[in-house]
Design goal:
This protein has about 260 residues and is of the alpha/beta class. About 40% of the residues lie in helices and about 20% in strands. Strands 3-2-1-4-5-6 form a 6-stranded mixed beta sheet. A 3-stranded antiparallel beta sheet has the order 7-8-9, sandwiched between helices.
Length: about 260
Amino acid sequence: MPPVALTIAGSDPSGGAGLQADLKTFHQHGVYGTAAVTLVTVQNTISVSQVEVLSADLVRQQIAAVISDIPPNAAKTGALGSVEIVQAVSAMAADFKFPLVVDPVMISKHGARLISLEAEALLKSALLPRAFLVTPNIPEAELLSGLEIRDEKEMLRAARRLCHSGSLAVLIKGGHLEGPAVDLLFDCEEVTRFEGARVSSRHTHGTGCALSAAITANLALGLGLKEAVGRAKRFVQAGIETAPALGQGYGPLNFWA
């Protein structure tokens, strides 16, 4: 039987981010993907025009249906939308027998908010303590830690604070800083630095989703955390370098990388 990974995330009809990106990434890694939909967006590579959040009970039932029949080897969260959904996922995560990767998606590439301010606070207090790994970018890490991040030293400082929030490990993505694209993994004891070449491209839609999904897929395959992150970083790097230039705005990366 193939390993299984579950994504709990929003839908992007253009296929570059959200659960569509997650499922493509799972498949490319040889992992069977399942999905619980949290919200539906109207978006393409140019803009997000509408966001509809599903009921927490419907999200809960989707997760329960999957786990009871096709239990995952690892799972991840993406955009969760509301306080009620964060509450539901946090409560269910207390009983997960598999690692949970939390990608704290807050704002879309186009600037649309994908989680309420109230849910953002609850994510920090209720869901992060359930996480095997949390994968914020710089703006998300600043919001979650309450610290300004301008360099690697401050990335590590924020990671330490997030570890104190209860997460077993933190991966802060440094793509928003100048210079090489450096991500820092902190397992609350040891720091591992992952550096990649910065690619000048506007086709980076869904890179955060793809990275967290690739890590989740590698964990489902039984890899250790450092190896899972390293392989995921290389996958996304190759995906950006060979992006198919789809759409008129922020196009998706190459999911066949």
